[in-house]
Structure formats: C-alpha cells, structure tokens
Design goal:
446 residues, alpha+beta, 8-stranded mixed sheet, two-stranded antiparallel sheet, 51% helix, rod-shaped
Length: 446
C-alpha cells in the first residue's frame, strides 16, 4: 500500500494526464467523434505516449532537482564546516594570544621585580631561568629565544644590577615586538623611566637616612684631633655608598693601580650629578651585590667625567682633582688617551652618554667582603648613613691585622697586590676613636 501511495506521489501529474486523455477519448467516443474502436485505441495510444513523455520529463526534472539539491546541501555542509573550522581556529588563536600575553607580562614583571632591592641573588636567576624554559619558551619562537640569549650574553656578571637593568629592558622590548610586530618600542625610554624612579627613590632615601649627626650636602667640619696636617678630617666628612657596576672590571682596575670608581649612564645624568657632590676627604664604601656586601673603603680625591654623543664619539673630558683648578679637555687625542685608562667598561662604544668616576685613594679592601651592617641602598651612588659607616669602619678595625685586608687580592690562582694606605687608614680610625666590631661564637658580626 505504501509503495502504491509513493508511486502516486511520484507520478501524480502523469497519471492525471493519462486519465484526462482517457476520459476525453471516451467522451468523444460517446458523442460519435471517435466512431470506431480502432480510433479509440489510437486515442488511448496517444494518451499512453503522452503519459510516457510526461513521466520521462518529470523523472528527468526530479532527478536533476535532486542532484542540484544534493550538491547544494553538500556545499552548504562544506561551507558550514569551513566556518566552524575558522571559528575554532580564531578562538584557539585568541586563547593562545591571551595565554602568551599573560606569560610574557608575568615574566617581564618578574624581571623588574628582581631589581627592586638593587641586588640579584642566585635563586632569583634560577627562578628566572625556570620561567623562561617552563613558560616563555612554550610560546616564543627560536628567533625570540636566540635574541634573549644574545642580550644575556652581553653581561659578565648577573649580580651587576645596572647592566642587567639594560638587558631586562631589551628583553621586554623583544617580547613586546613578538606580541605585535608594529609595536613602537624605544628601549631608551624604558631606561629613562627607570632612572626617573631612581631619582625619586634616591631623594626619599637620602632624606630618610639623615640624622641629627649627619652632615648635609655641604659638610661642616668640626675641630678635632683629625684636623692635624697629617690626618685628613675624613671622619667628619660625608660618607658615600657606591655599587660596583661590574665587580670583575672594577676590581681589575683597582688591582692595576687605576684608583677610580667608575659608573656609566645611558641618556641620563642623575648618577653623575650625585657623583659631583662628593667632597675632598669624603669616605666611599664600595659595595658588591650578590651577597658580598661592602668590600672596601676609599678616601675621595676628586672626580672625572667623560661626555659622549651616544654614537661612540667623545665630546669632552672634565677633570676635578680637589685642591687644583678644574680642567675641561676637548682635544680628542688627549680625551681618548685618558678614556682608555679611566673608562674601565669601555662604555663609549656601547652607546653610553656619560662615563663618570670618583678619583680615590684606597684605604682598605677585603676580597671576601665584610657584609652589610644595615640599610638597603638601591642606587649606584648615594649618601651613606653615618651610623652604618661607623659600623663598617669598626668591622675593618676588627680585621686590621689581616694581611688580605690591604695588599692581596686573589684572582683565580693568581696572587696580585693592590696597594692600600694602611698607615693613613689607622690614623683615620684612631681620629674617630673607632673600636673593633665584635663577632659571635659562629664568627658572625654582632
């Protein structure tokens, strides 16, 4: 029954046409139009032929329509599948980008967070390395990792904060450009911004470190036994903190008789301006980050500044040895000769704009360091709290008979001498009535 119904549905028009012709032929026969049976058969044959033609036509049209419908359905399916794939890809790319953005931003935040206390510990560098290989490398291409590696390779010692600051800014720029190729990054802007924060921190810390007994920017020297001709009034002068930019290079220079504490600036001048504040016979305490603490104490004799154009050319040299007229040198050959000796980091060819040094006389130097008696000093150079300075002198007093305190510095297996004015240092300690610091049973400073 179902098959008959389906046949009627599929051939309804043809059947109607056949029945219509049959009825018309029968009516014609009744009215005598078709007189003979033969004529009636002819009419029926015509009806049958019409039926066949109609069936073939309908079948052909139905088949064509079916093929078109099937093709249309297939194309619609393919289009829908493509749209779904595009949506999936777009969604996946969006999710990957967001994840990449978070990993990169977290990494940059961690980098600059390390610099917050002006020192970089081994654990912090290990954590940073784990972060690079555990997260950043999952999203960064080989070229990005190569660029990061090249930047890190420019630093000789990870504990030297200022070179690492420069490298971190470069790495941040690399990651930003990976997120968006047309991102307009100027690394110098990052340096300048960091320097501005340092200025603010330096101002605040200097104010916080001042006590009633501290000497202001212009020291007021009081009358004491230290005012005799053979003992400079160092105890009553300003104390300064100075962080070595690169310990290896700075110690090598001191060891070779270049008694200048050198710093470098890139499109900044706040450190140099601070350096110009040092006065004759001030005391400088030399700091090495990475857990070493303070390694030496020096008497200030003057300062030297080289100005560069940032493209490897010297503009001028300014030399101020206290007690002598300040000299400005513009003759290129003389400037270059002095620079080769005093610009210990060879910063002229590194895009620096200033290379500035405090000219000093070594009083004591401990190759092992004597720690930090208190206070966090985030800057390369800043005024040093008098209480902390006195504690440092007391520690040096406690090891005054150690031969390594004055003349010996170990460089690998090589023993070399670095001259320190022990006689003058002992007189300075005596002028301030400095008593040796004490240690506990474990040997730690009290």
């Amino acid at each position: 029954m179902e098959k008959i119904i389906q046949i009627l549905k599929d051939n309804g028009i043809a059947i109607v046409c056949f029945l219509s012709i049959f009825v018309i032929a029968y009516i014609l026969h009744l009215f005598g139009v078709v007189e003979s049976f033969q004529q009636f058969v002819v009419v029926l044959a015509s009806a049958a032929a019409t039926y066949i033609i109609v069936c073939v036509t309908i079948s052909s049209q139905s088949k064509h329509q079916l093929e078109m419908q099937q093709e249309l359905a297939m194309k619609q399916s393919e289009l829908q599948k493509a749209l779904m794939e595009n949506d999936d890809n777009a969604k996946r790319n969006f999710e990957i980008y967001n994840a990449k953005l978070k990993v990169y931003s977290d990494f940059v935040s961690k980098m600059y967070g390390i610099l917050g206390d002006n020192k970089i510990d081994q654990d912090e560098m290990l954590d940073l390395r784990t972060n690079i290989f555990g997260q950043v490398s999952f999203y960064a291409t080989g070229d990005i990792l190569k660029s990061i590696n090249e930047k890190l390779a420019t630093v000789k010692n990870y504990t030297d904060v200022e070179p690492m600051q420069k490298v971190f800014a470069d790495i941040a720029s690399i990651l930003q450009k990976d997120l968006r190729a047309d991102w307009p990054i100027n690394v110098n802007n990052a340096y300048a911004l960091w320097g501005t924060f340092n200025k603010l921190l330096d101002k605040v810390d200097s104010e916080e470190q001042m006590t009633e007994n501290d000497v202001a920017v212009i020291p007021e020297v009081t009358n004491s036994e230290a005012d005799s001709e053979d003992v400079p009034p160092c105890i009553n002068k300003n104390f300064w903190h100075f962080t070595m930019w690169s310990a290896d290079e700075q110690i090598k220079a001191l060891r070779n008789g270049i008694y200048e504490l050198n710093l470098v600036e890139y499109n900044e001048d706040w450190r140099t301006n601070q350096l110009k504040r040092v006065g004759k016979d001030d005391l400088v305490f030399l700091f090495r980050s990475g857990g070493w603490g303070y390694m030496g104490v020096f008497r200030v004799k003057g300062w030297r500044i080289f100005e560069f154009d940032g493209e490897g050319n010297i503009i001028k040299e300014t030399l101020n040895v206290f007690g002598e007229p300040q000299v400005e040198i513009t003759e290129k050959a003389q400037c270059e000769k002095d620079r080769q000796r005093s610009d210990i980091y060879n910063s002229k060819d590194d895009g620096a704009t200033l290379s500035s040094s405090i000219i000093v006389e070594p009083l004591a130097f401990s190759r092992k360091g004597i720690g930090n008696p208190g206070g966090v000093y985030r800057r390369t150079i800043s005024s040093y709290d008098r209480e902390y300075g006195m504690k440092q002198l007391a520690r040096f007093m406690a090891i005054i008979d150690d031969p390594n305190l004055y003349n010996v510095h170990y460089d690998g297996e090589t023993t070399v001498k670095m001259g320190c004015n022990r006689e003058l240092f002992e007189k300075i300690l005596a002028s301030g009535n400095i008593q040796p610091a004490l240690r506990n049973e474990k040997g730690d400073w009290l």
